[in-house]
Design a protein that fits this description.
Structural class: mainly alpha
Strand content: under 5%
Helix content: over 70%
Number of strands: 0
Number of helices: 8
Order of helices and strands: HHHHHHHH
Radius of gyration: 17 Å
Distance between the termini: 27 Å
Low-confidence stretches: none
């Protein structure tokens, strides 16, 4: 097996590993009952992990690939795209339900896709460039995606979505996001470092918007106390991964 084939195989394997968190989280949400406090902790914990991933992985790598300017451009575009789409979906759903506290499955699914697909592209870029932070990034993204999906999929359960439909929707996310790794590996060849920098920071911007517009509000809405501890715990765990692995 030549080097390129081995790298593509490893990229696909790690992308599937990161993406498997969506299916695992969805299945756990369907078959395991956990109280509001645990749901709040899950959302806050994933927010902390994602904060560390943005600060110590995505942003750093985006600047190394391109420059501070290309990082800012991609970051702003990612944040704006997520926020605009999220606002459109929220407005349309609330106009149909007349319930300001409701969150549709479309918001959960599309929000997850917008920040997760560029993340797995980042995995492919790491492998193509032989960068050292591969495993901490994979572990952090898996944990963040798992806990965020457990909260998001539980919202779909609350909306009385059929179990098979919930699994089917997250299966689509799993398949599409898993493709991102090999795509990132191939994109590293023809794209310039500046373009790759903007793709990576797009993920950081979309993830930041996802954290502040979805994860933290959902956690605070359910339990006002102690979510700061849960998010701090998630942040420290991810920071430990990036520092020691």
């Amino acid at each position: 097996m030549d080097t390129d084939t081995l790298e593509i195989f490893n990229t696909l394997l790690l992308s599937v590993t990161v993406s498997s968190a969506f299916l695992i989280g969805a299945i756990l949400s369907i078959f395991i009952h956990y109280p509001e406090r645990i749901r709040a902790d899950l959302a806050a914990f994933s927010a902390g992990i994602f904060f560390a991933t943005i600060a110590f992985s995505l942003i750093d790598e985006s600047i190394r690939e391109g420059s501070f300017i290309t990082m800012v451009v991609g970051f702003v575009v990612g944040a704006v795209v997520f926020s605009v789409i999220n606002r459109i979906l929220q407005t349309r759903y609330r106009s149909k339900t007349n319930n300001k506290n409701s969150s549709s499955s479309k918001i959960v699914i599309i929000g997850t896709f917008l920040d997760s697909f560029p993340e797995t592209i980042f995995i492919g870029v790491i492998i193509a460039l032989n960068l050292p932070e591969l495993m901490p990034a994979v572990i952090a993204l898996f944990l963040g995606n798992l806990t965020a999906t457990m909260e998001g999929a539980k919202r779909m359960v609350d909306d009385s979505r059929h179990n098979s439909k919930i699994v089917k929707q997250w299966l689509y996310v799993f398949i599409i996001v898993a493709i991102g790794g090999p795509l990132g590996w191939y994109l590293e060849k023809p794209l310039s470092p500046e373009q790759l920098s903007m793709i990576i920071s797009f993920a950081a911007g979309a993830l930041m918007a996802f954290i502040t517009e979805e994860l933290i509000p959902q956690a605070y809405k359910r339990v006002e106390l102690h979510i700061g501890l849960s998010s701090s715990f998630g942040f420290i765990i991810a920071l430990t991964l990036f520092h020691y692995i």
